[in-house]
Amino acid sequence: MRLCNFASGSKGNCTYIETSKSKILVDLGVNLSYVESCLKEMGLSGKDIDGIVLSHEHNDHIKGLQYFVRKYKTPVYVHNSLYEYFYFQVKDVAENLHTFADIFEINDLKIIPIDLPHDSIHCNGFKFVEKNAIASIITDCGNMTSTVYNSIKGSALVYLESNYDEEMLYACKYPTWLKKRIASKTGHLSNEDCAKVIEQLALNGTRQIILAHISENSNTPLLAYNTAKAYLHTKNIIEGVHVRIDVASQYNRDTIFKISAD
Ligand SMILES: [Zn+2]
Ligand SMILES: [Zn+2]
């Protein structure tokens, strides 16, 4: 399995996942021209995409969806609680909508939806399985519950939200209601929350973390990385030795991660 971040953060989210027989996008919160340019850099076109799997209906995850689907007629997969929203509220996707409530497959890629606590109609993280290769995506998650954690435990790679630094959030210029929303149990995961999750994942076999959905106003990529690295160090988990941590970019396509089936 291969995974590549195209964009991550409140300005737009899109991740590419490929197996031997399946090529999908998770979320399409970027412009059509941008996602096409990312695909082109990888020798692909929009026609090659077998499905778009959506986490939830917030704009930063679906902004470019209707334009992509209008052009390529790509099947769109949403949780069944989101069917009506997409059918009636999002143009040009109704004919291509598919719903899931539980595990489903796109060719040889098995997709296990994970319900996340987030202030949307419904929000999903996902575990992706190709034979023994397992990768998970968890963003827009206000609280790492034991159910969510147990669902992703054992993944070789986890693309994990590290949204805000607690001090920067309280000091930033956001209105109080927004700060409360972000920090609530249905908002986003902080750097500190994320670091504790990485500790547990690393102790259970995860070898690659991609820090994702980093806020531009209450976090920086370096701060997210350093917070995780320093916390893990206090637990004798060394970044680069026991677990590798990379940071997902907002505006650039990142390197391709290979998840081997071992
Ligand atoms: Zn959201
Ligand atoms: Zn989001």
Brief overview, please?
29% of the residues lie in helices and 25% in strands. It has nine helices and 14 strands. The structure holds zinc ion (2 copies).
**What is the rounded distance between the termini?**
11 Å
Task: Provide the CATH top-level class.
Answer: Alpha Beta
Instruction: Enumerate how many helices there are, as a single number.
Output: 9
Q: Secondary-structure element order, as H and E?
A: EEEHEHHEHEEEEEHEHHHEHEE
Give the key terms.
262 residues; alpha/beta; 7-stranded mixed sheet
Could you explain how this protein is built, in words?
- With 262 residues, the protein is of the alpha/beta class.
- It has one domain: 4-Layer Sandwich (Metallo-beta-lactamase, Chain A), CATH 3.60.15.10.
- It has helices spanning 32-41, 59-62, 65-72, 83-89, 146-152, 166-171, 176-183, 191-203, 221-234, and strands at residues 2-7, 14-18, 23-26, 51-53, 76-79, 97-100, 104-106, 109-115, 124-130, 133-138, 157-161, 208-212, 244-247, 256-258.
- It has a 7-stranded mixed sheet with strand order 6-5-4-3-2-1-14, with helices on one face. A 7-stranded mixed sheet has the order 7-8-9-10-11-12-13.
- Strand 12 (208-212), helix 9 and strand 13 form a beta-alpha-beta unit.
- The protein is globular.
- The N and C termini lie close together (11 Å).
- The relative contact order is 0.15.
- The model has no long low-confidence stretch (mean pLDDT 97).
- One zinc ion binds next to loops.
